[in-house]
Amino acid sequence: MDPIEPDAHLLALKVMRLMRPTLVELGPVVSCEHKDLVQRFSSKPHSDVFSGIIAETLSAGQVLLLPQSFGNIYLGETFSSYICVHNCSPQPVECINVKTDLQSNSTRINLSLQKNNKSAIILAPGETIDDVIRYEVKEIGTHILVCEVNYTSPAGN
């Protein structure tokens, strides 16, 4: 077993807000290079029906665009977040407990991943636990997602 530095974290926590993408209209694809796929089909004689159909389907109409920032969430909308804990150490990590709370100006709501899981979680090297949490926003104001991960290292700390 490799020695572990006392200040090194064995687990990596990743938190991502989930948002729906939007459909965006794009203009036609313009291709000038002879090696481009669209150019190959459009340069062939139109007698080849198959190549004409493919060239038409390769033009972009609508594409999905992910939000560039977190944006706002409004009263009644559902906040969704992906929580992932990954064991990036060479040793197994025991007794993992992940706690997530959504804190507002007046309340703190527990959104823990392990509400129904009473058994101790053990992550082997390279393994991951993850889940999606959802909460309908019922209060106006700033909300803060608080994530806490507790575990026992192989040394028992």
Automatic annotation (TrEMBL):
Chain segments annotated as transmembrane: none
Domain Trafficking protein particle complex subunit 13 N-terminal: 9-155
GO CC field: TRAPPIII protein complex
Pfam families given in the database record: TRAPPC13_N (PF06159)
The protein's name in its UniProt record: Probable trafficking protein particle complex subunit 13 homolog isoform X3
Gene: LOC117184252
